[in-house]
Write a structure and sequence with these properties.
Chain A: Pfam families: Rad51. Chain A: This is DNA repair protein RAD51 homolog 3. Chain A: It comes from Flemingia macrophylla. The complex is a heterodimer of chains A (about 290) and B (about 400). By secondary structure, chain A is an alpha/beta fold. Chain A folds into two domains: about 5-65, 5' to 3' exonuclease, C-terminal subdomain (DNA polymerase, domain 1), CATH 1.10.150; about 80-290, P-loop containing nucleotide triphosphate hydrolases (Rossmann fold). Chain A has twelve helices and nine strands. In chain A, the strands form three sheets. Chain A has a five-stranded parallel beta sheet, with helices on both faces. In chain A, strands 1-2 form a two-stranded antiparallel ribbon. In chain A, a hairpin with a 2-residue loop joins strand 8 (about 275-280) and strand 9 (about 285-290). Chain A starts with 9 loop residues before the first helix and ends in a 5-residue tail after the last strand. In chain B, helix 3 crosses helix 4 and helix 11 runs parallel beside helix 13 (about 235-255). Chain B has helices at about 15-30, 40-45, 45-55, 60-70, 80-90, 100-105, 125-140, 160-170, 175, 180-190, 200-215, 225-230, 235-255, 280-290, 305-310, 375-389, and strands at about 75-80, 95, 110, 115-120, 150-155, 190-195, 215-225, 260-265, 265-270, 300, 315-320, 325-330, 335-345, 345-350, 355. In chain B, strands 4, 5, 6, 7, 8, 11, 12, 13, 14 and 15 form a ten-stranded mixed beta sheet that branches. At the A-B interface, helix 1, helix 7, helix 8, helix 9 and strand 5 of A face helix 2, helix 3, helix 4, strand 1 and helix 5 of B.
Amino acid sequence: MEVGMLPISASKRGKLLAAGYTSLDAIARASPTHLARDMDVSDSEASEILNLATKASSALERPNGTHAAVVGGGQTAWDMLNEEKFSSYITTSCVDLDNILGGGIKCKEVTEIGGVPGIGKTQIGIQLAVNVQIPQEYGGLGGKAIYIDTEGSFMVERVLQIAEACIEDMAEYRHRFHKDFQACDVKMHPNNILESIFYFRVCSYTEQIALINYLDKFVTENKDVKIIIVDSVTFHFRQDFDDMALRTRLLCEMALKLMKLAKNFCLAIVMLNQVTTKHIEGSFQLTLALGKR
Amino acid sequence: MANKLINQMGLPKSIGNIFTARNIITAKVTNSSLFSFRFQDALSRTEFELMELLDVGKEEVTSAMAHVSEVVCPPCQTALLLLEQRVRNESLAGHLPTRLKGLDEAMCGGIPFGVLTELVGPAGIGKTQFCLKLSLLASLPANCGGLDGRVIYIDVESKFRSKRLIEIGINSFPEIFLKKGMAQEMAGRILILRPTSFSEFAESLHQIKVSLIQQQVKLLIIDSMAALVLGEHDCGTTRQQALGWHVSFIKSLAEFSRIPVVLTNQVRSQIGDESRMYSFQAQSRSILKDDPATYDSHLVAALGIKWAHAVTVRLVLEAKSGQRFIKLAKSPISPPLAFPFEITSSGMVLLDDDGVEMKGPEINTIHCQGLSLSSLAVSSAEYMFTKNN
């Protein structure tokens, strides 16, 4: 491994190379004071570089030691299958749709929902934000929701309606399966449901990127968040963006960050997408916006 | 927030200084304005680019970006907080009642504040009539159920008739408009702008932004958005771009001043084989085409799908075998309902407050059956008749 791979600033890298340190081994063998003198930097900076170098070279050697995987960080298909058996789903409140999806919206995965205006994308989004909160004794997840609104179409009145209906459904479910449990009514109040939906109103693509970066910290602080809904991913990226290459890169980066988030915190990510018309083979057809990245 | 400069955001001093120092250097390199290094630039760059640009290690860049992100990202609110705020701060819980009972019930109280509401329909169906009525409703005093504020009415096609406005007022609210001086006061609250070009419109939008809060403006109407956009840009992409920018601007106007914004849209006939569905639905499309009932539905909204995504509420006004209907085609709070209506001397009147629930794609079709010029003549003759009585 070479010096160029070290996560240090360009000028320090230049100094290292100028002082003749081209391989990590060479740095690892040097002492901090030597390094500081050769590079003409302070002792603390030199020991920092030394730390990074030893860390990097030890990371290279480690894979031989691990037993299960040939390459670090991988997972066998069998393990994956076993893990999937225990993965949790968020119901869409629609049996047919749940069946198609194999149980509902899956945690640890990114789901995209696209459609023409007025078809009900926001409705599904709100529905999921409420359904994720169904307590575990009713077959739900009992988690919280983050709703990222880029279009301003989130309606609290509608959330309240859906929350009320959801509580009614739960009461009915209770009635059917636990007839003797009369005394224990559903304790949830619509306000509890509203309280557990974290709403972010994003007004520009910069804010959107910043929020996605920040989510990592936010979810760490609010561990019981089980779903993140982005309504919609596309809106700000479709408004006057000249540099298409930059747009593509930013979108890909955002998608990767969201996937990582889904995996690390075991939560579901639902992205709503708009449609656009495309000219294909002589006729106009509807396709998902930002489809061809 | 996003346009704030790096040095105003409370980064740890050492790294903040580096950002600022490079700031000038980057400006020199890119030859742009001196303080071009804003958040936007910082957040749009990769970590590696920033490492090179700022000449610092990866860890510093990562922590700085985390900090920048936290500052830039919008505040978090729970839905409960939003609801409480809305109930506490806003008259009529954030809705402008249309005084059409069925429609108000379906829409949780009327035209919602803070979002765009669109009226689509063929010429002569009653879009402007509806707008006139709404502007009156917003200007009414609070004790009469109005918003007690000013109205900005952007009249692109010069269709605003103050005579008709007063007439609607006298017929709908005789107790107010027959009082001496009240008609003048009510009408005096409605400001009509007549931009002749898109650029003039854009300019007035910026003025409106400032005056919205100072002048107690409670409603913004643009009649019609389609005429404004279609009149100027003929080529597809430039129109889309100009529209895209203005849509987000108007949306933010509505949101930050928390007022309802009503826009009208025209219709055009559908071009040839332009499909409204996905390719994999080709089969169902052909079935649709065979259905004789949909033969006349070759009308679509003049502003395309991107626009339709941007509006939050879409009301379709149409005519079917001589009967006019108003349909809730897109709304995050109401089911797809259609109400029959007619235009009378007091404006739009619903014939049935219950509404018919629409199934499938029917809610989005725009019919124009039996709304010929002769029927228009009849309705205006009727209206002359009632006026003379």
